[in-house]
Design a protein that fits this description.
The complex is a heterodimer of chains A (457) and B (99). Chain A is α+β, with helices and mostly antiparallel strands and 457 residues long. Chain A has eleven helices and 17 strands. By secondary structure, chain B is an all-beta fold. Helices cover 0% and strands 60% of the residues of chain B. Chain B contains no helices and eleven strands. The radius of gyration of chain B is 13 Å and the shape is globular. Classes of the chains: A alpha+beta (457), B mainly beta (99). Chains A and B meet through helix 3, helix 4, helix 8, helix 9 and strand 12 of A and strand 2, strand 4, strand 6 and strand 11 of B.
């Protein structure tokens, strides 16, 4: 039943979604805060995550407070142990983030929004004259045609029921804006159901009010100049060396919990006593900073002081306890499988220094590649219990630019760059290898339940 | 006078910041309605002569950011207006006129 449930979750995840939400660095998430609120399932890691934050909704503010809640539950032994023995070694993590973010976007916005100020003033200055010029042309055509083509003028006027074209004036600008008048006349000219006279009068009106109207032409020129001035403001941004940046600083606190079994050695009097169920609980806290440069580079640093353990360095094994029952010439047996670690579990405090340098690279015209150059430096406070390590790597995540959907990613990593774990072993057991033989790589993806994501906002 | 509403859609995960917008040279109100959907609004705008919308949203190149403009809930533009990427600024410029 458990296997069936797992399969259902996996396949419903695949069908439903999907937009992955994480920039991943190897097997860890990066130090970059991302504005995702979702419930996700990662079949590779057998994990379920819940994330909720205000990063998305606070994007309209130049300066703002940030907060985030992340929760994750996972099976430490991955998917394989569920299928092979239905065993789960559950762990959970819960973390809270709070921070502050600010940018220089208002300075860049000002450059664009004020780039056409001179032109805008000219437009405003000629607005009254333009209205009189356009509507005056309409009134003149009606006055000229009314005497000899009364019915056609009446038919034309009925196409614009909100106003009387014979007396149209400044007061009617809201009822019949220029765009509506111009589009209306163009439609009448194109519509073959209108009489030839109606079309002729409409064309005359369009020409006099717009096409051949010097004031209108001047206005169109100014509008074009205004559009160009704003378009070209990007050069002024470059001259002023105003590259966009956004900085976020944050603190975080979290705790984690792991349940696991240890194997104490076979107890011949009672096999059940060979195993011990344990629970580890640890806290972590720290601070971080993200800095976005010109939407091209994203720098991230995070420091965490963490109460952790050496479980990841221990190798678990699967144990089977069979019990036979014999009764009335029949034999029945029960089989109990347990995943357990050797009894060498130790708690330890670690200083984590995580660095990310993310480069955004456009690919073709629709795709985006995010390269994350990362380093994960873990400094143990007790080298006997847990050896300090440094992992370095590069991950590349592909995104579809139209919807921002995550397509997939690949990473290359050199775990324990200095081979500290090997160096800690007795010389006869050491296996030191050249760098190229220590590079690991893998692919990653993360599925999200898109429907739920919507509701969470 | 008309109430102007601009509906802007963008890839939520990739856009890092929404800048200020102006409608006919006047400050507009920017509000994120749902992830990837922004409403830029201003009430009682004189649209007799022209409707002009200018504003920036910030994010990397190769994203599709589009805008539709409504005056009193009537769509003004025929085709979606695409934000133009500005490499020096690091964002997408919306620069629209209905003329």
């Amino acid at each position: 039943m458990k296997r069936l449930l797992t399969l259902l979750i996996i396949f419903s995840g695949i069908i439903e979604s999907i937009s992955a939400q994480d920039v991943k660095a190897g097997k860890d998430e990066s130090t970059i805060l991302l504005d995702n609120s979702n419930i996700g399932f990662d079949p590779g890691e057998t994990s379920i995550t819940f994330k909720y934050n205000n990063l998305g909704l606070s994007k309209t503010k130049k300066k703002n407070w940030l907060w985030a809640i992340n929760a994750e539950g996972k099976n430490n032994e991955g998917l394989a142990s569920i299928f092979s023995s239905s065993q789960i070694v559950p762990s959970s993590e819960f973390s809270l983030f709070a921070g502050y973010s600010w940018s220089n976007s208002d300075k860049i916005d000002r450059v664009y929004l004020t780039a056409d100020d001179d032109i805008l003033n000219q437009v405003l200055a000629m607005q009254d004259k333009l209205v009189e010029s356009v509507y005056g042309s309409v009134r003149n055509v009606m006055a000229q045609e009314r005497g000899r083509n009364f019915e056609s003028c009446k038919a034309l006027n009925e196409k614009f029921p909100a106003v009387d074209l014979n007396t149209i004036s400044k007061d009617d600008t809201e009822k019949l804006p220029f765009a509506k008048l111009k589009n209306g006349l163009e439609k009448i000219i194109k519509n073959s159901e209108n009489t030839r006279e109606v079309v002729r009068i409409a064309r005359d009106m369009l020409n006099r009010a717009f096409v051949n109207n010097a004031d209108w032409k001047k206005f169109v020129e100014l509008n074009q100049a205004s559009l160009s001035a704003i378009d070209d403001a990007d050069d002024e941004v470059a001259d002023l060396d105003l590259k966009y940046w956004r900085t976020s600083i944050f603190i975080h606190y979290g705790n984690s919990s792991t349940k696991y079994n240890t194997f104490l050695g076979w107890d011949s009097t009672n096999l059940d006593n060979s195993f011990k169920a344990n629970t580890f609980r640890g806290i972590n806290f720290g601070l971080g900073i993200n800095h976005d440069i010109a939407s091209k580079w994203l720098l991230g640093f995070e420091y965490t002081y963490e109460e952790t353990n050496n479980l990841n360095t221990l190798t678990s094994a699967e144990y089977t306890v069979r019990t036979n029952n014999v009764a009335a010439n029949m034999t029945g047996s029960t089989e109990l499988k347990k995943t357990a670690y050797p009894d060498r579990f130790k708690e330890v405090f670690v200083h984590n220094y995580d660095f990310d340098v993310i480069q955004r690279i456009p690919v073709g015209e629709k795709y985006l590649l995010l390269l994350d150059y990362y380093a994960r430096i873990n400094r143990s406070t007790n080298e006997e219990r847990l050896v300090s390590t440094t992992d370095i790597g590069i991950s590349s995540s592909f995104f579809n630019g139209e919807k921002g959907n995550f397509i997939g990613g690949i990473y290359f990593e050199v775990p324990d760059f200095n081979e500290n774990v090997e160096r800690k072993k007795p010389i006869e057991d050491r296996e030191l290898n050249p760098l190229y033989r220590r590079v690991t790589f893998g692919i990653y993806t993360k599925f999200s339940f898109a429907g739920l994501t919507r509701n969470l906002y | 006078m008309a109430d102007i509403k601009c509906v802007i859609t963008y890839p939520d995960q990739m856009i890092t910041h929404i800048g200020e917008f102006e409608i006919n040279g006047l400050d507009a109100v920017e509000k994120i309605i749902s992830p990837g959907t922004l409403h830029v609004t201003r009430k009682n705008v004189s649209v007799a002569v022209i409707i002009r919308v200018v504003g920036m949203i910030y994010g990397p190149k190769n994203l599709t950011c589009e805008m539709n403009v409504f005056a009193d809930n009537v769509k003004v533009n025929s085709e979606p207006i695409k934000g133009k990427y500005k490499k020096n600024s690091g964002g997408y410029l919306f620069n629209y006129s209905n003329l």
